[in-house]
Amino acid sequence: MKLTVLVDNNTYIDQYYLGEPAVCYYIEDGETRLLLDTGYSDIFIRNAEALGIDLTQVSVITFSHGHNDHTRGLQYWSGEIGTNVHIVAHPDTFKERKCGELSIGSPLSEAGLRENFRLTLSSEPMKISDHITFLGEIPSLNDFEPRKSFGTLVDGPACSEDFVADDTALVYNNGNGLFIITGCSHSGICNIIEYAKSVCNEKRIIGVIGGFHLFEVSEQLRQTIAYFQMNHIEELYPCHCVSFAAKAEIHRHIPIHEVGVGLVIDVKYQPKIRTVGGVIQKVTLEDLPDIIDLQKKAFTEVALWMNNFDLPPLHQTIDELRNEYEKSIILKYLSDEGVIVGSVRAHMDKDHICHVGKLIVHPDYQNQGIGYALMCEIEKYVPHCDKYLLFTGEETPNTKYLYEKVGYVVVDKQEMAGLAMFIMEKKNKAML
């Protein structure tokens, strides 16, 4: 990932770009070019031109929240720059906002944006590029970052105190840790980081850039610094809505970087290299908690791509799995270190059809043949069936490709729980 600061309060000496109290980051991840926020005016366009950045290549624009110092610049985006752009934001982002009589929200409405862009409003996390996730609505996970109201949120005829529920962030997973990219952190920078760790199933934090909405040397700031230290966060880029006093206090404990227009941060993708010898065995009753944990890790990756966290495997309970264990064959793939990194299960019905399901592989061990090995092995445990049957989502073509490699073919397509699913089967040649 390569991040370039297009808009910030600060500019560097002898670098003649334009600054304003606002935020816009240009981000490259693989083939994807995207923006987080668009600042207050058109200077993100002017600075991009001065920096030699081609904004016509941008395919995604995300917003950290709806305040006008993060959204107002979008009105200067023209068809000459690009019309085939996907905007991703929280459902509250483009609602009217006021502070007294002053309008502080986006000048562009949801209806207006839908006329010119592809618009996705989501309070759930969703992947927007190969390694970057939009976090959606941030839950409160600690007691030292209380939600503070900021003016009034106008939703049709209704007005309410605005606690900036739409405040969100992006997280980049480089394979060895997370880099957090935030706008203002109204939801609390530590809440954001903790939620990103949960969403990505990764505890290591490489760095953080953005506004932390910290202005005074306070108990909240002291606990925030302690949290940074506890998580061993060494690369800190506080900016925008962080006062000099707050930056100085953070710097006393953890050296921080100066942020300004033109800053480039390059975080290399470093996929984990795993050597897998491993063995396949039947699951025991004592393995079931590990199977549930692995299942949630694997299906979280699927849920992020599909932007759907209602997938049944994410919500299966340990009691439900115990019941399934009594009626099914469940296999596990053990790594050289003795860790369960893959699993599959199957059962045969009264019509001699073997139902295969919940093929899962730990995200760090995928694309190494584990899924293929499990699919071949499970057939050995049900040798007397007439055929093997499974279903897989239309939105997960890699899984469908794996099943085809093992010998399955699509025989039907159905909707299950609102999802388009392929029904695939494989004849048992031993019974022909």
Description:
The chain contains ten helices and 24 strands. With 432 residues, it is of the alpha+beta class. The longest helix has 19 residues, at 288-306. Helices cover 24% and strands 28% of the residues.
Short description:
With 432 residues, this protein is an alpha+beta fold. It has helices spanning 43-50, 68-71, 110-116, 189-200, 219-230, 244-253, 288-306, 318-327, 370-380, 397-406, and strands at residues 2-7, 24-29, 32-36, 60-62, 86-89, 96-99, 102-103, 118-121, 126-127, 132-134, 152-155, 158-161, 169-173, 178-182, 205-210, 235-238, 264-266, 279-282, 329-334, 340-348, 353-361, 387-393, 409-416, 419-427.
Protein traits:
432 residues; alpha+beta; Aminopeptidase; seven-stranded mixed β-sheet; 24 strands
Question: Approximately how much beta-strand content do the residues carry?
Answer: 25-35%
Oligomeric state, counting identical vs distinct chains: single chain
Radius of gyration: 25 Å
What does the largest sheet look like?
7 strands, mixed
